[in-house]
Each structure stands twice: as C-alpha cells, then as structure tokens.
Amino acid sequence: MQKRLKPEVIRTDAVIRGITGVNIKNSVGALNETGEFCLLEIDEEGNTELNAVLPGHPENKSLNLNSDNEHNIMWIVRGRGVYFLDLESKKTAHITASNDGNGKILSVFTTDPEKRIMGITYTNCPGCAVNLTFYDLKKRETIGEVVLGPGKAFPYYDNTVLCVYTKPDRTRWWFACGYDAKKPEDLFEDRLTRKLTETQMDAWHRSDAIHPAKRILICSVLVNGKAAYFSVRWDEKREKVKVEPLILQRLKNRCFDDVFLFSPKGNWIKTLAFPAGGSAMPPELIMFHTGGAYPQGISLPVLCGYTDEMASGAFMEHEAWGPCYIDWDPDVPEKLFVFRLNEGLRLLADRILGKSG
What we know:
Blueprint: E1 8-11, E2 16-20, E3 27-32, E4 37-42, E5 48-52, E6 65-68, E7 73-78, E8 81-86, E9 92-96, E10 104-112, E11 117-123, E12 130-136, E13 141-149, E14 151-157, E15 160-166, E16 172-178, H1 191-199, E17 210-211, E18 216-223, E19 226-234, E20 241-245, E21 254-256, E22 261-262, E23 268-275, E24 284-289, E25 302-306, E26 312-318, E27 322-328, E28 335-340, H2 341-352
Antiparallel strand pairs: 1-28, 2-3, 3-4, 4-5, 6-7, 7-8, 8-9, 10-11, 11-12, 12-13, 14-15, 15-16, 17-18, 18-19, 19-20, 21-23, 22-23, 23-24, 24-25, 26-27, 27-28
C-alpha cells in the first residue's frame, strides 16, 4: 500500500471564504467574511492572522478568488467583470470585459509580469466567439484585443500568448500572438505551436496548466475515448520541444482532473484523481514534483488523501516548514489542511528505494 502524505490540521479563528496562492513567505491570499482581499499569515506554531490588504476592496463581493501566485496579483471574477489587486503596488483595477448581459469571463492570466499586463478571455453569449482582451493594470486600460473564435489562450513569454483554435472539423490549430495583434498576419507559429498542432494536444483554459518560466505545459489528447496526459517542455529559445506521455505517473482505476496548479517556482504541481467508472467516491488530492531528474520532468504521484472537489487550495513557502500546500474545504471553513511537501519528497525517495508500495 502506497503511503500517503498526511496534513497538519490548523484551526483559524477568522472566517475565511476561500484561499489562493501568493509569493509571500508564510502567507496565502484569502477572502474574509465580508469578501475583502486579505493575507492569511501562519506562524511556525500554527497560529494564524488574517488582515485585509485594502479595507473595503473589492466593493462587489464574490467567492471566485484566484491569483497569479508567482507575481502577487489577486482577482475575483463577478459576472462580466474582474476586480484586481496588485499586492506589490497595492493598486486596484476593475474591467468589465463584455458589454453584453449574457457575457461570461472564461479565464484570467498574466501576460507580462513586469508591466502588469493581464490577459482575459470572455464570450458575449453562449456559443459566441471567444475574445482575448489585454488589460494594463498600471494604466487601468485595455491595450489590445484579439478574436480567437472557438479558442483558448495561455501565458507564454515576453508579451506573447499561446493560443489554440478549434476548427469546424474539431481539429486544433495552435499559434501565438502579442497584445498588439491586429490582423491575421500578426498570428504566428513556432516549433512549440507546430508540435502541439501536429500531436493535436488540448489543455483546459481555466487551469494553470502552464508554467512559462519553468517552460512546461500539461496537455491531454483523447485516445480511444479516454484522456491521455502529456508533459510538453521546451528550451529557452523554443527550438527543442519534447512531448512525452505521462505513463509512470498514472494511477490504477483513476483518472486525473483537467485542472492543474503549479507552485510559484514551478517545482510542484497539484491536481485531483477521480475514481474511474463514475464512482461516488470523492477525488484524491495529488502532488507531483518537477525537475529534469524525472522521466517527462514529473515525479511519481504523491497521494494526499481524499478532498472535496469544491475545495480551494494554495501553495505556500514557509520559513520553518519549507514548501507547503494548503487545502481549504468550504464544508469545514475553520480548518486548514497543511501538507508539508518536503515530507512528500521523502515519500518519493522511499518509494524509489522500495520502502513503500
């Protein structure tokens, strides 16, 4: 029987409505009882302190909290709008991406961390084309827009976005573009996009399935009606591309979720594993360590026990505990389940040496 990584359970006196990752030691982002952006700090004794970053912000409340956990930008999506908070400058911003009442935000991500340029994909109505808006947080203004059609977008490099377009015959075409793209000639291909098109890879746009600095993307493709997962890696010049199936990482009688989350430095990946065959059993929380020493750049799975599909979570770098993952279950909002990932590395080492199943 494979050993599981067990969490330390921490109780918090403050009422929390969700958590997300930030690149601040001993801390995660959170929403408090009134829906304000907060930082939740945890000391080495497990005591917690919740403080609003800017009292009263955002003005409109939502439980849909997210962040760029590498570059300290938090946001909530409410209806057709996004409310931002830059934790470094303490600047706030709000954009209504769609002027149509049926519009819907699909994804939000950072395209240029230094300039604080965000990418936002949205549709004006169900079945309508997907639009990609580039928004400047510093200037609080839209600086570009690209119509993707039935497509998705992901952060890539240097103001460049990785996109995939689904053709009428359901085949996929991957390409890249900048925020200044105005015409079809501004869309371009490189070795990565051509390889993704060749292999017909797909990735879920509401997932943090890519880590641009680590240069790794988690993709999938249907094989005989079942999703097969791949790691895609490339070099700094984007000239050498590896597309490798995740075979050793698979779990018997379970299938991975399409939602992946990288830690700020890209050293860990979180996902869920669901029982195959439509079982009513809850999913299991899964961690992967990344690095060139592993086949496909990804370790064997670290099992972390059952969780709630609706739970939110965040990676945290702790001065006393090292890298951690915190799972927050809305059914027990006063508890934080803290997984110390250095213990996960020990479990991986034991497994490789044959000390566990």
